[in-house]
Amino acid sequence: MRRKGSSETISPQDVSGKILGYMEERFGLGPELFSPYRMYLASKGRVYLGPRNVPDMPKIATIGLLIARVNGAVKPSTNLLQIMGKHVEKNAVELEKQQALDFAKGQDVRLAPAQLATLRDGYVLMRYNAEPLGCGFLRLGAVKNMLPKAKRLPLRFI
Amino acid sequence: MTGQAESIPAPFRARYCPLVDDENAFLASLSRLLPKAFRINTLKSTREDVSERFAGYGIGLATVPWYEDAFVCDNPEAGFSLEHFTGAIYMQELVSMLPPLLIRDILPGARMVLDGCAAPGSKTTQLAALMGNRGTIIANDVSYSRIRALKFNLEKVGALNTVITNRDLMAFPDMDFDAVIIDAPCSAEGTIRKNWEVFDTWSARGVQTYARVQKQLIVKGFDLLAPGGTMVYSTCTFAPEENEAVVDELLKSRPDAKLEPIAIDGLKTSGTVESWDGAEFDPETRKAVRIWPHHNDTGGFFLAKVKK
Ligand SMILES: C[S@@+](CC[C@H](N)C(=O)[O-])C[C@H]1O[C@@H](n2cnc3c(N)ncnc32)[C@H](O)[C@@H]1O
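^ inputs. structure came back:
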């Protein structure tokens, strides 16, 4: 399959391997979490995780959920980190209450040195009280907010 | 906005009051606002976890006698909870939780399930949870704009076992589903408690337009069942034309369709309308049930469980 705006050609098998490798390496998410499902590669490097058994029929709008974008590097989605967040073993940020409120609203979050200790720059899971909130991008001690706009919410009870 | 019992149109009263056991309780319930409810999304959380957190917030929850994962919560602020944000809970009217519950015993092992009129996805998200995200659900809807909301809700709950299709169910290719849900487009009279505007456009003639489509949808849904499969037909309306008459039509045109009795522990259901407008319905239709708003403090609903 060929992706727009790139000369790189990438096959569905390669994508699957690449994603599994990334998820394990970056978040400690093992392949067994993905094995009941199948990955589907759509346009612009979007990867969906959906049922293994999909009938061959016209007018399919979406299969499963968008779990990542692959444009050279892998960019995990908030969907995926919310679904599998409880299994994430590394690169998860344990947020303070005010940070969690700010993140849910869509703001970027500056981390304290203690929070940064075990993290490496790149995509991170934002977590509060063991609840996975979504995806952020860590760089130079600050997390850029990756929550899709429609999912942002000014929380009052957390 | 809640309406007043006095402003319920006379033709509406004349039509439905003779069908209920307690006219005053029925009319009074229609003018009371519907209690808000949510369902625990078991793909992401548990009722114990959510109850504990809401207790911590000081938000009161009431349990529901017929569904362990449903809660009534009259605090409008529940929509601003962490649990709503993460998809640990899903806001859903109580009666809307019934169709998937009628087939909950076959869902965990089901291979292929169809939600024929799926958007915005209350039943699909519940099916996914009851299937533990396994098997395949085809979530179909004819309306492109409503597919957006369906997609959003499937993402919210983390439903991985779904395929969204956007087409007229009548044009669906032949397939064999273990279970089919037809939550039909209807005149929505039973949602008056949350949407008083239903009365602005209500007319006894309006129901005929829906009835025509429903009769096609129920037959198509049945044809899409594998032998031994189960279909649930539901509406949120009181009109016999959209309920008993639709099931009656299915029984006439598909002699191999059989109804199954419906009983849900802790839920008060009522018998069907046996004749209407001078016509007598097939006695088999009496296995379907009506849910009147004043019996369980819910919206109005109709359910039929059909076996192939
Ligand atoms: C009562 S709503 C469904 C609500 C949904 N099951 C839920 O629980 O969120 C009825 C739906 O049927 C869809 N619909 C109407 N005619 C249809 C047809 N011919 N084929 C497929 N869907 C149809 C409408 O677009 C509408 O979304």
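The first strand of chain B starts at residue 37 and ends at 40. The pocket of S-adenosylmethionine is lined by residues B 96, 117-123, 140-143, 146, 168-170, 183, 185, 213 (CB under 6 Å).
thumbs up if we can close this ticket
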